[in-house]
Write a structure and sequence with these properties.
With about 130 residues, the protein is an alpha+beta fold. Helix content is about 25%, strand content about 45%. Strand 1 and strand 2 form a beta hairpin. Strands 1-2-3-4-5-7-6 form a seven-stranded mixed beta sheet. It has a single domain, classed as 3-Layer(aba) Sandwich (Aminopeptidase), CATH 3.40.630.30. The chain starts with 5 loop residues before the first strand and ends with a helix. The N terminus is likely disordered.
Length: about 130
């Protein structure tokens, strides 16, 4: 399992871009950074093939991505947004110890319908304390 292959990169202090997630030498999904802000915050998003879900693959990859963002890139705040109805996606920030900040009502528009999004965040000092105590 790995995510070292870069899909694309934009000139924004290396704070945007996506990575391929590989499992058993095959494309398993993607993950990456988005919405970088001047307050040193980025969003993290991810997608994993359905038949691979529930194995902890994406949780481990997102954990490594967050560690890279905080330790190597100096990011202060990581945000994950997940559809309220998508329990698998919501489980990743919950397992990683993110704080649930709340629900954004009818903010995502997919397939002609509005959906609610759950907002989770992790601050650099929280992640580093968690990593030290793990």
């Amino acid at each position: 399992m790995g995510f070292k292959k870069r899909l694309f990169e934009r000139d924004n202090f290396d704070r945007t871009g996506s990575y391929v997630v590989e499992f058993q030498n095959q494309l398993a999904g993607t993950m990456g950074f988005g919405n970088p802000s001047r307050d040193n915050s980025v969003d993290v998003g991810y997608w994993l093939r359905e038949y691979l879900q529930g194995r902890g693959i994406m949780t481990r990859c997102v954990s490594a991505l967050i560690n890279m963002a905080i330790v190597e890139m100096g990011i202060h705040r990581i945000v994950i947004r997940a559809a309220t109805a998508n329990l698998s996606s919501r489980g990743i920030p919950e397992r990683l110890g993110f704080v649930h900040e709340g629900t954004m009502r009818a903010t995502g528009y997919v397939n002609g319908e509005y959906m609610d999004l759950e907002i989770y965040s992790m601050l650099d000092h929280e992640w580093l304390a968690r990593s030290t105590n793990a």
